[in-house]
Amino acid sequence: MFRILAHIGLTVVTVLIIREILPDEIHYDTTQTLLIFALILGLANAFVLPVLRAITMPLTCLTLGLFAFVLSAAAFYVGGLALDGIEITYLGAAIAAVLFGVLNSVLDSVLLRR
Fold this sequence. Notes:
114 residues, mainly alpha, two-stranded antiparallel ribbon, 5 helices
C-alpha cells in the first residue's frame, strides 16, 4: 500500500515538473486541477497501464518498444480529456510521456531505493 501511495506522490511531483517545462503544451485552470490530474494519471499508471501493456505486448515487441511510448502518450492525453479544466495538446502528451518516463525513473531510483 505504501509503494502505491509513494508512486502516486512521485507522479504528482513529476507532473508539476513537466508542467513547468512545457507551459505552452499543458494548460490548467487551478493548481488543484493539476493535482487531481496527477492523481488520475498516477492511478492509471498503477492499475490500468500494466494491464494494457500486458495485452499489447506482441505489438510492443513488433515495434521494438515504440508502442509502449504510444500507450504512455495516450494515457497522458486521455487523462487530460477525463478532467475539465486541463488541456493537453497532442505534442504536449507525446513530449510529456517521454519526460514522465525519464523523470519518474530518476525520482523513483533516488527517493524509493529498494
